[in-house]
Amino acid sequence: MYVVPDLVAGGAERHVVQVLPCLDPSAFITRVVCIGQEGRLFADLIDSGAVTARALHRSRWQAIQACAELVREMKGFRPDIVLVRGYNAEVLGRIGAAAAHVPHTVVWAHDCRDGDDRSRLRRLLDMLLEPITDAYFGVAEAQRRYLVEDLGHPARKVRIIRNGVDPSALDPRDDKAALADFGVPAEAPVVGIVAALRPEKDHELFLDAARRVLSVVADAHFLVVGGGARRERLESLACVQGLRERVVFTGDREDVPSLLRAMDVVVLCSRTVECFPISLLEAMAAGRPVVSTAVGGVPEIVADGVTGYLVPIGDAASLAARVIRLLRDPAQCRKFGSAARARVQSEFTLDRAVAGSEQALKEVAHGLRAGAGPVRLTVVLDQAGVGGIEVVLLEMFKAFDPVRVRPRLVCLREGGALSREFREQGFEVTELDRSGRYDMRTLPRLVRLLRKDRTDAVLVTHHHHASLALGRLAALAAHVPVNLVAVHDMDLTSVGDRCLPRWAMASLFLSTAVVLLSEKQGEYLEREEGMGAHWWSRTRSRVIANGTRILPVASLSARAEARVLMNLPADAFVVGMIARLSEQKAHEVAFEAVARAADAHPELHLALIGGGEREGELRALADRAGIGGRTVFLGRRRDVPRLLPGLDVSCLSSVHEGAPMTVLESMTMGLPVVATDCGCLAEMIIDGEHGFIVDVGDSEALGARLVLLAQDPDLRARMGARARARVQQRYRIDQTADGYARLLQTLLGRSTPELEEPPAAYVATAGHRDEAAI
């Protein structure tokens, strides 16, 4: 969160508007709070679509109210870092950050004075706030002495990140067309200054120099670009000096790049405070030679005699002489302009400024919270039923390195069928005995539990709606640093449903991150459910694929034992379907496929492993399809790994999926898979390599692929071997556990970003890819 006085048109304000929207959205979610009014640049920030912002509309006499509102903003946004810039923002922002328990606070300084001119009150406040200030960022090396020697800030806390601009946004070609608006002849030499009409910019010096230039270059004209309260006074001064016909005051302009192209020379004649002026960088990026006073960080920008000239502060004669030299030598003017643009392109680009800002912010966030113990992770579920997500969580718990992550399970209701296995593996399981939808005791119980355990992170899953709501609310109330939402499904629009309920999507910004199964899933949520469309539905995201244990290769005896358990002939060709008996799995499509395939391969049998509400309906449907005699209903089983060796092919005919564990378990057993093209299946199974992918609902294609595999044992063996190798390479449960551990450690600042391998990931903002960090 960046706290500023306002966003009026100034260099420091433009820095906010230019840099923040460009921060990597996979690593940073940003918000700006103006203590006072919005300012002219506020709309530009909002229009960027990458930053949320609010103005408090508080005056300097409403400090207490402003501080209270800042605390509320910070508690709502829960920033890792609060940046402050400007007197009242630096004081109120840091006090608010301390009150809201923000981990880190940074002052971003944009001034560079001679000596310490702070009031006694300001010195006292800065001294008191020094211990809670993690860093002081500057924009010019010239500030280092000022910040350390004059203001007394610790040198170790000072970091310089020079400003930058986007050269591609500034055309270096000459174009005088913009002069027509001001009645300036197209052939006239033009000298311009782009600066707010403030005392420190010393426009009086510019007018004095203009008068001197006209005495030598009689057809010169001058543009004063910028607005401010001093305009009337400066216009009067120009009239007094006889410059009324040659000096144009343009006011604030949106077309500054066009005006720069119409100028031959750009001047900046500040007498103090100037650090690393963006207006100067833009002029140079536009291929304009510059003449500037050697103030603050300007000598770091302008190479005297190469990209322009530096002159002493307040010296109108020297300023005029250098301008005259350039106007009278167009070739030299062009040479300086080309060198100026090249210097910006090599040293002062916006990309470099953004990269430097990102690195500095990450160093602040990570450098002071390293060395802690294992991440205390609490997974909140309604109950631990026997489902794909719950199985993944159990296996992931077992795969976690206890030095890195200490997981536990909280069930809002009873423990569920898998809770005993969690306990048998030594994991803490807490049941809150939620009695119903409106049990008001659940939330305070959960908050107390999280506080008592000092939980570092809360993880909820998308399909447990009670935990999706209460788990996140409790995490916020208990000030848990990280709360994650794991989304394990997609393609639900095909059945008129959503992965994330509308209320959850509308509050997604309250979650630290969303964990996705694939980039394709992120694109689906963005396209179909509106993730990232608005600030409230935007958060960082990380792709962490599901994983499974690598099962041992099945032996002949294991195959024979499985056939006995399933009551199937030893020589049958068995298609297995491991899935709940629910509408989602579309068993009727598989039945039609098996009926078609059985005509070509009479020994084909179908083994259904799973229970559910459709069992009676599906038994009748199998009979009507003529496959009742070759279909076995095995019900919900806890010994699926013992049954898998008895299958020849694994099949799934779902209408929507995520990354089903049953498919991964089949592949690790060396079984080819025939599945419909939904969810992540087409990424898990490369069509023709590890099995086959068919369109959703296409029973004819599904049946044809089953026949092909039934008739070609060698093809089954090749595909099965490749399927097993694919899981070993990409879908191991230890990789899933490591992905979560890395994400948690990164979000909590317990890992060094440079040591993180770049993960494949997706951020919930259109068109952006990710790494979750701050």
From TrEMBL:
GO terms of molecular function: glycosyltransferase activity
Keywords: Glycosyltransferase, Transferase
Domain Glycosyltransferase subfamily 4-like N-terminal: 10-168, 386-547
Glycosyl transferase family domain span: 181-342, 567-725
Pfam families in alphabetical order: Glyco_transf_4, Glycos_transf_1
Top-level taxon: Bacteria
Entry protein name: Glycosyltransferase
Organism of provenance: Tomitella fengzijianii
